[in-house]
Amino acid sequence: MDHRTKGFTLIELLITLAVFLILITLAVPAFTRSVQTTRADTEIGDLQRGLNFARLEAIDRGITTRVRPTAGGSVWTGELTVYDGTGTPANVLRVVPAMSSGATLSLTSGVTALDFNNLGGLSAPSTAVVINYVSGAQNRTLNVCLNGRILLGGSCG
After folding, report:
1. Residue 72 scores a pLDDT above 60
2. φ and ψ at residue 75, rounded to 5 degrees
3. Which of 4, 11, 103, 119 is a good FRET partner for 74, with 20 to 30 A between their CA atoms?
């Protein structure tokens, strides 16, 4: 009678473990890159939707709407607020969530707010605004043209 134990040998287990570790080593960087790309797309998409909302509200209400950092100043990576007007008091229409830590958002020099007029055009500042988003290796560019068009990656031309 054969009394051999059924199961795996130590060599077979070590080889399986080595193959598994190699596969994990290859998969983790790709997964990390995928997460970073998704986060960048989500954050720039949130910003683009917030700007489009402000523009459409300006057209719909027939008034100027303003987008600016909630905290004021020029820190655009924080929470942004859409207002129905440029004076005080102004009603808050929507809040755009803050960017993730490590993300930077830079605008054309000196821009502290974006105002859309009742025709949907950019009334302030008086030039097109380029918004650059950087998070790690991820870069995105959003252009706000004078006619109000908001272009991801394109140029106002």
Report:
1. yes
2. -90, 85
3. 119
> How far out from the chain centre does Cα 103 lie?
9
Region 36-59: mean pLDDT is 92
Structural domain includes residue 6: no
pLDDT digits (tens, 9 = 90+) for 78-104: 899 999 887 666 788 999 998 888 888
The three-state DSSP-derived secondary structure of the chain is: CCCCCCCCCHHHHHHHHHHHHHHHHHHHHHHHHHHHHHHHHHHHHHHHHHHHHHHHHHHHHCCCEEEEECCCCCCCCCCEEEECCCCCCCCEEEEECCCCCCEEEEECCCCCCEEECCCCCEEECCCCEEEEEEECCEEEEEEECCCCCEEECCCCC
Domain count, the chain: 1
Q: Do the Cβ atoms of 120 and 63 come closer than 8 Å?
A: no
Does the pTM of the predicted model rise above 0.85? no
**Taking residues 29-35, what's their average pLDDT?**
88
